[in-house]
Structures are given as structure tokens and as C-alpha cells.
Please model this.
Amino acid sequence: MRAVNGLHRGHAALHARDCEPESFQWIEADDAGHSIFAWLRFDGEGGSPVAVICNVTPVPRPGYGVGLPTAGAWRMLLNTDAACFGGSDQPVAAEAMAATIPYQGQPASAVLDLPPLATLCLKPVVTPVADKGMDMVT
Model:
């Protein structure tokens, strides 16, 4: 539980503006056939969003497409299928690469291997831009 609480505290998108609809956007809410739900959380300050993808069945979903707001690398923040959470510890890539292929109402998409009965949280990989003092999604 400490890891999940640390994730929540460490990523403003997961807690800032909880009561405001602008902090939340569905990616997938209608995939009853696979029992997958996915959404984005935003901090409202222009920080990186967090994508949350839930597989609520005991069936792994390899090669599942997910729409994302930006192309590039997305880093795994949480995988509740990990052994430390009592999961089956199925292999999941530490990063996913989103391509500029629109999907699910988003301008980019990635293909993920979703473990059973698990939630994945991903965040775009950000590198500092030295001359501007800003972050840039790569």
C-alpha cells in the first residue's frame, strides 16, 4: 500500500483537481467484451498526464491498443499484477512506445500487454529542455 500511496502523492495528476471534470478524461469506457477501462488524469497545471488502464478479468489481454494524448515513450508507474502486490507477475514492458496513430479519440496510441486483474499507470517520458527551463515530451 505504501507504493500506491507514494504514487498518488508523487503525481499531481492523480490527486489534483479531483472534483473538477477537467482533471479526468475517458479513453475507453465501452469495451464490455474485454472488460477494459482506461482514462487519463490531468493536474490542471500543464504537467504530464497519467494514463490508467484496468483489465478487470482474469484473462490477460496481449496486444491491446490504447489511445494516448502524445506519441513517444510512456513509462510504467504502476503494475498491480506485480508479485509485490500479490499478482501473477506476468511480464510487462517498463515502457510503451506510442505512435502517431489516432485511436479512441486520442492523437496517438500504444499497444500494451495487459495482465489479468490488474491496473497499469503510465506517464509520458519527459526530458528537460536546458535552454527554456521547461519539460518536453519525447
In short: The first strand starts at residue 24 and ends at 31. The first helix runs from residue 2 to 10. Confidence is low (pLDDT under 50) at residues 130-138.
